[in-house]
Amino acid sequence: MREVVIAGVGLHPCGRFGDKPYVDMGREAVAAALKDAGIAWSEVQAAYCARMYLPATSGARILKTLGMTGIPIADVEAACASGAVALSQAYMAIASGFYDVVLAFGVEKMPRGFMDPSAIYEDWQIRMGLAVNPMYWAIAAKRHMADYGATALQMAKVSVKNHKNARTNPYAMYRREVSVEEVLSSRMVCDPITLLMVCAPNEGAAAAIVCSAEFARKHSARPVQVAACVPRTSLYPWFRAPAAYVSARPNPPSVTTRAAREAYEMAGIGPQDLDLVELQDTDACSEIIASEELGLCPVGEGGRLVDEGISEIGGRLPINPSGGLLSNGEPIGASHLRQIAETVWQLRGEAGERQVEGARVGLCHVVGAGGNAAVTILKR
Amino acid sequence: MREVVIAGVGLHPCGRFGDKPYVDMGREAVAAALKDAGIAWSEVQAAYCARMYLPATSGARILKTLGMTGIPIADVEAACASGAVALSQAYMAIASGFYDVVLAFGVEKMPRGFMDPSAIYEDWQIRMGLAVNPMYWAIAAKRHMADYGATALQMAKVSVKNHKNARTNPYAMYRREVSVEEVLSSRMVCDPITLLMVCAPNEGAAAAIVCSAEFARKHSARPVQVAACVPRTSLYPWFRAPAAYVSARPNPPSVTTRAAREAYEMAGIGPQDLDLVELQDTDACSEIIASEELGLCPVGEGGRLVDEGISEIGGRLPINPSGGLLSNGEPIGASHLRQIAETVWQLRGEAGERQVEGARVGLCHVVGAGGNAAVTILKR
Amino acid sequence: MTDAAETANVHSKKRVPIKEGFLTTPLSDLREAKLQGSRCASCGEVFLGIQHGCQSCGATGMETVVLSNRGKLYSYTVLRNRPPGNYMGPDPFVPFAVGLIELPEGIRVISPLTHCNLDSLHVNMDVELALDRLYEDEEGSEVIAFSFRPE
Amino acid sequence: MTDAAETANVHSKKRVPIKEGFLTTPLSDLREAKLQGSRCASCGEVFLGIQHGCQSCGATGMETVVLSNRGKLYSYTVLRNRPPGNYMGPDPFVPFAVGLIELPEGIRVISPLTHCNLDSLHVNMDVELALDRLYEDEEGSEVIAFSFRPE
Ligand SMILES: [Zn+2]
Ligand SMILES: [Zn+2]
């Protein structure tokens, strides 16, 4: 298999953009990635568009505005891991030699108001009031508190850290610092999760130009290697939306843990080698739990990472230097590729005030509906 | 690259199935394909689920009922070519050696009543009454008549042939023979297209177990080789739903023609080598035009294939021995894989009364919204 | 959900479960009906409702099993905002708790918690099943939903 | 679409095109307004409406171009059933023709055919633009749609 690199990345900011068409958002992210890579659109040989709430053939509709070059274009979806599916297909196509240059991009534009719960939940769940994503996070958080002593204060600190990191991220939705008191006293959503501890589904677009190392050498000044890209689904049981029940027997490793282990093995890199992590903080406690599942610390000690400053920029292992989902929201199709763009910039030393000094290896993680998760490891 | 084969196929019938959940339809097709292949679900290493109108993570929701084995599962979509995207991803994964056994399947279950036009069309097109798929086929047909003398009688004969072929296809939606007079006098939809000349979007599921030739040798008695699988998008212009305008300049080769040429080259097989073709007869004239675009006859002579009995079972080159979309309808995500299943059975000599004698090479073709088309060539 | 509906032994309306297969029948006496599930004959894993196959081991031999109406609160939260979509609970909205209930059959079920004081909930507390009419469907049948409440 | 609306020179209501960028402005006199498109400065391809880039060659330099109001009927059909969704035409439904109109600028546009006898249509016939009020939007503006009719 050939070495696979990312030659360029591009983002459309995360947020809410009213009537702005998703076609424009997607095109802007792709055009930025092509420019960053120094690669012409006509050189791209295939494209994968990750999206969850957009209509059929969104990818083709976006890309025709750059010129209809006749390449295969597929929309792909795996809930919160959609972007990782796009990236992993591009990875496979490049590593195997099928193609030299592939576009992996993701776009999301939510319908106005709340997400349609029927996209995920069954009718009876909606009627009984169980179609509430933060409910699952909160129930997991409450048990983590009971089992390991995680605290609402630790969760608040996670939120404070991520909001602080986002201050200088021009693509983040929220760029305002918040205090521990503000987080704890913000409106309760699902105990113990307050409004400032939870991420919002929103809009955005992200793109990565994936190519062979050989091709990149001729075009890109600063390619970043894709050392692993591992999307996986959960073994039974899966406790997260839209689960209705789970096993009370000892559970097998979580899908995040399994994806991470495979990624570490594929990359020949362990958690101790990581310089930064972008992970799925759909809520503040999810950062704590995911840190443990990814092997960044022993099980039950995720709260210490923020208590001891380890996960801050400047700490031993910065987590979510971009501000994470808490500050960027979750433009679902774009979310993993947004993490990828941030990590590429970090590894190139281009992250400005939120730069993790000397970063050489970064991990990106997503997990969500349908038991989908993915771990990607990038290195320079 | 390694040789890629289909070790087994399975179908859920095409039609309308009321409240039957898509999860059950999909599971039944997948279970049939596994049984046909003699391969256990636990041996499958990755899965691609093609679907257009179903909700997020449909693939994972269907496959968890077979047991959550933790493999990567992605939903893929490219309008009418969705199934070909699933198959081509499986092909790439096997050919490159990433995996030995991959499931490519497709499922569709339409919402009750008509398809939601906003999945394809823009608001202004819907308001002006332009969001009508058969309109595009009819406008193409009318011009083909003016340019080359194609006739409504030829179109009626195509419909008669395909309905006749479907008589003994247990998976077809319509299995009743019709007469030329019946076709011509059926309700006019869009001149010159009558109701019996047009296919219906409907429901169904289809699955193929794709694996390396080496793996198949140990499991499957009758593997069929995937000689080419080529999904492509159109160059500008693209005249088919939801196009609003096209160029009046001389047009480049159509996406069907380009996909076919690439498939022929990849397979080392020409149109003269084909023993049967399953192609996208969304309407009767589309069969005539696609025959020309696929190089089955010179441009303008597609009508002769049916006039002279060439495209009948027993003719020199049977087209749509399954009954085509006219008899099976178009369960969009499943449609290409339904063609694949039919062709696998034909190449194995298992197609019963509709068997094409001695068939060794078959071509499957789809084309639709977003400028997507695909050509797959199978051989034994 | 009202106490009146819960305690009514005699009723004239047809009753249907919120999801086919989730409850034992008949539903004429809601104090007698229970949650129903499927047990894998191969690995023993227990699931809620009717299952065609085992999500854990993939086996297809499944036995119907009646679930205990007493369990322990494995974890919980309180929903402070009206759930989206076609939520059938009280209007105007009243915050309510949702728990993950561990049953002796080896399954944990997500369920609303009713008839309880939101402030007195705690992990591992004993809870019991409560079946109540949630709404009336288009055919005029009473749709019966499940919840748990402190014992 | 009514002749009254078409011939109204004086109007008090705001008028907006069915799609932003499809028509020249102002829309005060519908006999003067025309279809509007974009021409690629690089390859010369012409598109309907505002384009950010050329779908044919990918260049980004696009010039606005006013499209001729006379063209030829390249092909057509007649819609015999009510279109799905939010179709704004007459209710009850009246069958109408749709054509692919070839304009001298090198573009063919899909357009309803109005003010015509459905039986007298033929390929290559001369047609001309007709702009009419299709409906009134939520803000009370007249929404102007395009069609072509026999010259
Ligand atoms: Zn089992
Ligand atoms: Zn151009």
Describe the structure.
The complex is a heterotetramer, with two copies of chain A (380 residues) and two copies of chain C (151 residues). Chain A is 36% helix and 20% strand. The longest helix of chain A is centred in the C-terminal third of the chain and has 17 residues, at 332-348. Chain A contains 13 helices and twelve strands. Chain A has helices at residues 22-37, 58-63, 82-95, 123-127, 133-148, 152-166, 180-185, 213-219, 255-267, 284-293, 302-307, 324-328, 332-348, and strands spanning 4-15, 46-50, 73-77, 101-108, 188-190, 193-194, 203-212, 224-233, 245-247, 276-278, 361-368, 372-379. In chain A, helix 2 links the parallel strand 2 and strand 3. Chain A has a nine-stranded mixed beta sheet with strand order 3-2-4-7-1-8-12-11-10, sandwiched between helices. A two-stranded antiparallel ribbon of chain A has the order 5-6. Chain A has two domains: 4-112 and 203-225, Thiolase/Chalcone synthase (Peroxisomal Thiolase, Chain A, domain 1, 3-Layer(aba) Sandwich); 132-199 and 227-379, Thiolase/Chalcone synthase (Peroxisomal Thiolase, Chain A, domain 1), CATH 3.40.47.10. With 380 residues, chain A is of the alpha/beta class. With 151 residues, chain C is mostly beta strands. Chain C has one domain (3-150). In chain C, 3% of the residues lie in helices and 40% in strands. Chain C has one helix and nine strands; from the N terminus they run αβββββββββ. Chain C is globular, with a radius of gyration of 16 Å. Chain C starts with a helix and ends with a strand.
